[in-house]
Amino acid sequence: MDGRLDNLYAAARIARSQAQQSVRRSERVLRECQSARREHQQTCAQVERLRELWLSGQRDRLRYSPYARLQARLASMPVIEQAKGILMAQCGCSAEQAFDALRHVSQRENIRVRDLAARIVSGTAPPSETGDSGPARQAERMTALLTRQRRASAGC
Length: 156
Fold this sequence. Notes:
Radius of gyration: 40 Å
Strand content: under 5%
Number of helices: 6
Distance between the termini: 137 Å
Largest sheet: none
Order of helices and strands: HHHHHH
Number of strands: 0
Shape: rod-shaped
Mean pLDDT: 81
């Protein structure tokens, strides 16, 4: 019986040793998994930061891209053409002269041509609608400028 007990104790020691080795391997695998998980989370956070940075830069690239500039130009063109038409009707000048006057006043007053054109177009509306006489004054200045330019070119 003692021999059987000794064999059982020996088998138990071997089983315990194997179990301890399995536990150590499991702990090592667990640490590796936790490390891989932390690394994955850090990589995901870095990817998200890069994505946000890329998206913010994308907006800037679109704003300065030729396509975006063309879209802005197409959007503002009707207003500029309307302002040119108003100036041509008021002053009796050509389209080139009207645009030159728009450009000249725009540079002198440091206003974008499309903003100046929008002011002129809104200044032709009745005062009760706009409530602002600023655009009307700018339209009058443009008319005076065009009249002076026409007289200078005609030799008056």
